[in-house]
């Protein structure tokens, strides 16, 4: 009898950790840690010590690692998604901030803010393969859905650079508003959205014509326009809904993916930077830099349902199955 | 057949010509006046390339962008001696085909340069003179100002002192004209933001060297003596642009009080320690090029050259188009101060936050929270539209 209970408990413990638990990883720029949030319980379950000034964070295509750029250590650290330990580093070049992986999961492209370059890394070999010269202060990094074109935004040059990956040459430069920080393709590749933090707009670019076809602007009653500073952009898989983090405006704008109209502003924590969907797209997590927390948005209801305290000055977020 | 070949060759030549002419040259003049500026602290003695170094870095930044737009920026530097006529220098630049001029000149020379440049269609960028009158009664329609005014600096400081509730100021003013102008701005700021000046003292500059072999022995007893009879105050505010005494005030006051203004907590457009909002990247680029730290004057010149670069990348090819762009809603300068900088269309002053630095770190940035404005909170700093004395239409510009 007792044995049966004990066995049952052991089994229950074994089953209590389903293989498909979804975890969110939040880089805390000031405390040099990554907070791991269990998205079933909405609780921080682990805090991983990383290098100095962690910002850009993303899951590898093979889902084995969470990569985090630790800018002040001039490297990218690899966190094992099974053990939650830092297991290796990638030679990112100086001051890495944002990066993107090619669809095959072989190469990583890293923006190096300090020397106007994008560094190319072989992930398996942990070596640098080369670099592309871009504009002043490269920041945003995005891959076209077909994996053929890399997008980099440069903050002081105020452009989105289209880099052909076969030749590693810039094929087009599209001028956008001041301090472009983030770029996101619509999943069907029909549009590239670029946020301009200082300009206060999101440029919708036609990637075939390399031309801005629309500019999304934001207006929040009672809020000065200088506080509206768009950074992170996340677009749903069907391309119908987009979310734009507005920095010190403390809001996430909900934008219709087809008409480009702003349909709603969601109040989140202070200085919202970046966001990530859960794999089922039911929830969107936002990092709130000044209030040291993460807001959870119910994507269908367009409501903020919860706030989770993390480390100091949270910046980036990515989501992985554990 | 031969005719076709000839035609093709002619086309090629034409095409080649077009390609060569594709690169647009944007030449920017830089006018400055030499002469050493005295300072108490060795750390405050300006480098020989103070200011112009910032413009050179911005030219590099513009050229990185220019690579993608077929634009090439160059800086034509011109240093005036005391006896040189600024109008003649402007004439020389105009004859070289330059219509955009960054000027680091004192008030009188700047006005001469502006008025001489007006007839020739030149647009000037004032990166050195902080005098309010250049944006008020003496404003010019062909002078853009990236340097903040004394009243912007004073208001930025006063907002912070109000936020700290250090409302009782002991004001100490130097005996030079510039010191008196800064004191005027501080008095105005005190009134605007609810501080009271409990007493004013004048520190006479009796001449003499900033550095002596006998050292600081006397100063240690002179400063407390000078301040000891003052009524109760929260903070000592110094107006000493001439750098005669203010640097001596911290740690030598009669009562243990903080110092602000020309020493202690100083309002400025830029500080070499400022690293917020991505500023670290600009600071790194500057140090890599010049092997020294970036000053406020460097930043003011950087902003001017970057404004020209921004206008050029938006298609402005001459002085008029440049000014039209800078005055339009499309213009926003990213200058590492946490928000966009724009131009006050009524007097061509660049709106900007004011940093408060103790010389080691940025202590705070004004406007402070709670100082609201119907149009832009940056307009809580300095003379605002309703109170301006500037009439650009009627100005000599």
Question: Would you give an account of this structure?
Answer:
- The complex is a heterodimer of chains A (322) and B (397).
- With 322 residues, chain A is mainly beta.
- In chain A, β10 and β11 form a beta hairpin.
- Chain A is globular, with a radius of gyration of 20 Å.
- The two termini of chain A are 34 Å apart.
- Chain B is an alpha/beta fold and 397 residues long.
- Chain B has 2 domains: 225 residues, Rossmann fold (3-Layer(aba) Sandwich); 116 residues, Rossmann fold (3-Layer(aba) Sandwich).
- Helix content of chain B is 36%, strand content 18%.
- Chain B has a 5-stranded parallel sheet, sandwiched between helices.
- In chain B, a hairpin with a 4-residue loop joins β13 and β14.
- Chain B starts with a helix and ends in a 31-residue tail after the last strand.
- The N terminus of chain B is likely disordered.
- Chains A and B meet through β15 of A and α2, α8 and α9 of B.
Shape, principal axes of CA atoms of chain B:
globular
Number-wise, the strands of chain B total 14
Radius of gyration of chain A: 20 Å
Distance between the termini of chain A: 34 Å
Spell out the helices and strands of chain B N to C.
HEHEHEHEEHEHEHEEEHHHEEEE
CATH superfamily of the largest domain in chain B: Response regulator
Summed up:
The complex is a heterodimer of chains A (322) and B (397). Chain A has one helix and 28 strands. Chain A has 322 residues and is mainly β.
Tag the structure with descriptive keywords.
heterodimer; A: 322 residues; globular; B: 397 residues; alpha/beta; Rossmann fold; 4-stranded parallel sheet; 10 helices; disordered N terminus
List the helices and strands and how they pair.
The complex is a heterodimer of chains A (322) and B (397).
Chain A: H1 2-16, E1 22-28, E2 33-38, E3 43-49, E4 54-59, E5 65-70, E6 75-80, E7 86-90, E8 96-101, E9 107-112, E10 117-122, E11 127-133, E12 138-143, E13 149-154, E14 159-164, E15 169-175, E16 180-185, E17 192-196, E18 201-206, E19 211-217, E20 233-235, E21 241-245, E22 251-256, E23 262-267, E24 272-277, E25 283-288, E26 293-298, E27 303-309, E28 314-321
Antiparallel strand pairs in A: 1-2, 1-28, 2-3, 4-5, 5-6, 6-7, 8-9, 9-10, 10-11, 12-13, 13-14, 14-15, 16-17, 17-18, 18-19, 20-21, 21-22, 22-23, 24-25, 25-26, 26-27
Chain B: H1 2-22, E1 24-33, H2 52-69, E2 71-80, H3 86-95, E3 100-104, H4 107-119, E4 123-126, E5 143-145, H5 150-163, E6 168-174, H6 177-192, E7 196-203, H7 217-227, E8 235-239, E9 259-261, E10 266-268, H8 279-290, H9 296-313, H10 319-327, E11 343-344, E12 349-350, E13 354-357, E14 362-366
Parallel strand pairs in B: 1-2, 1-3, 3-4, 4-5, 6-7, 6-8, 8-9
Antiparallel strand pairs in B: 10-13, 11-12, 13-14
Helix pairs in contact in B: 2-9, 3-4, 5-6, 9-10
């Amino acid at each position: 009898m007792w044995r049966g209970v004990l066995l049952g408990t052991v089994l229950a413990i074994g089953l209590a950790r389903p293989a498909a638990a979804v975890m969110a990883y939040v880089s805390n720029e000031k405390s040099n840690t990554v907070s791991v949030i269990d998205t079933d319980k909405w609780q921080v379950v682990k805090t991983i010590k990383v290098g100095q000034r962690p910002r850009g964070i993303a899951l590898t295509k093979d889902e084995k690692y969470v990569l985090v750029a630790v800018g002040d250590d001039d490297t990218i650290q690899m966190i094992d998604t099974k053990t939650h330990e830092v297991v290796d580093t990638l030679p990112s070049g100086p001051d890495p901030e944002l990066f993107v992986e090619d669809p095959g999961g072989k190469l990583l492209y890293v923006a190096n803010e300090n020397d106007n370059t994008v560094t190319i890394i072989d992930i398996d070999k942990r070596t640098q393969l080369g670099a592309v010269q871009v504009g002043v202060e490269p920041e945003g990094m995005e891959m076209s859905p077909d994996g053929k074109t890399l997008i980099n935004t440069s903050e002081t040059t105020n452009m989105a650079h289209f880099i052909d990956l076969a030749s590693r040459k810039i094929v087009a430069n599209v001028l956008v508003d001041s301090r472009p920080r983030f770029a996101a393709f619509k999943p069907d590749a029909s549009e590239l959205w670029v946020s301009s933090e200082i300009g206060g707009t999101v440029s919708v670019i036609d990637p075939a014509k390399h031309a801005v076809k629309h500019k999304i602007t934001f207006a929040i009653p009672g809020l000065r326009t200088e506080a509206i500073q768009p950074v992170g952009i996340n677009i749903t898989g069907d391309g119908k809904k987009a979310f734009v983090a507005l920095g010190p405006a403390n809001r996430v704008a909900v934008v219709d993916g087809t008409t480009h109209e702003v349909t709603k502003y969601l109040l989140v924590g202070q200085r919202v930077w970046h966001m990530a969907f859960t794999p089922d797209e039911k929830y969107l997590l936002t990092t709130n830099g000044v209030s040291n927390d993460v807001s959870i948005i119910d994507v269908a209801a367009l409501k903020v349902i919860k706030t989770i305290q993390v480390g100091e000055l949270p910046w980036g977020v990515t989501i992985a199955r554990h | 057949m031969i005719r076709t070949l000839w035609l093709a060759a002619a086309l090629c030549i034409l095409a080649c010509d077009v390609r060569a002419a594709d690169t647009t040259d944007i030449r920017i003049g830089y006018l400055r006046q030499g002469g050493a500026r005295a300072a108490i602290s060795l750390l405050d003695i300006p480098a020989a390339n103070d200011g112009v170094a910032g413009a050179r870095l911005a030219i590099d930044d513009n050229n990185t962008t220019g690579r993608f737009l077929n634009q090439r920026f160059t800086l034509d530097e011109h240093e005036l001696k005391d006896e040189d006529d600024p109008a003649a220098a402007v004439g020389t630049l105009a004859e070289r085909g330059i219509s955009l001029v960054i000027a680091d000149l004192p008030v009188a020379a700047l006005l001469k340069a502006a008025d001489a440049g007006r007839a020739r269609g030149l647009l000037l960028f004032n990166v050195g003179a902080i005098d309010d009158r250049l944006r008020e009664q003496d404003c010019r329609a062909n002078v853009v100002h990236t340097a903040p005014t004394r009243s912007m600096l004073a208001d930025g400081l006063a907002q912070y002192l109000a936020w700290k509730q250090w409302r009782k100021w002991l004001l100490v003013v130097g005996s030079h004209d510039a010191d008196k102008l800064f004191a005027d701005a501080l008095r105005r700021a005190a009134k605007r933001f609810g501080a009271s000046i409990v007493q004013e003292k004048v520190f006479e500059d009796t001449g003499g060297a900033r550095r002596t072999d006998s050292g600081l022995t006397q100063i240690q007893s002179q400063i407390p003596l000078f301040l000891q009879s003052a009524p109760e105050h929260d903070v000592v505010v110094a107006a000493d642009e001439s750098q005669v005494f203010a640097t001596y005030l911290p740690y030598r006051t009669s009562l243990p009080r903080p110092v602000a203004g020309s020493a202690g907590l100083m309002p400025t457009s830029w500080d070499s320690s400022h690293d917020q909002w991505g500023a670290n990247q600009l600071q790194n680029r500057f140090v890599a090029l010049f092997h020294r730290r970036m000053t406020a004057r460097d930043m003011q010149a950087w902003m001017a050259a970057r404004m020209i670069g921004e206008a050029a990348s938006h298609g402005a090819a001459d002085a008029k188009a440049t000014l039209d762009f800078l005055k339009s809603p499309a213009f926003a300068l990213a200058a590492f101060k946490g928000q966009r900088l724009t131009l006050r269309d009524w007097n061509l002053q660049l709106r900007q936050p004011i940093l408060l630095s103790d010389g080691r770190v940025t202590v705070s940035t004004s406007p402070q929270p709670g100082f609201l404005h119907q149009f832009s909170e940056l307009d809580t700093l300095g003379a605002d539209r309703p109170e301006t004395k500037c009439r650009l239409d009627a100005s000599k510009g």
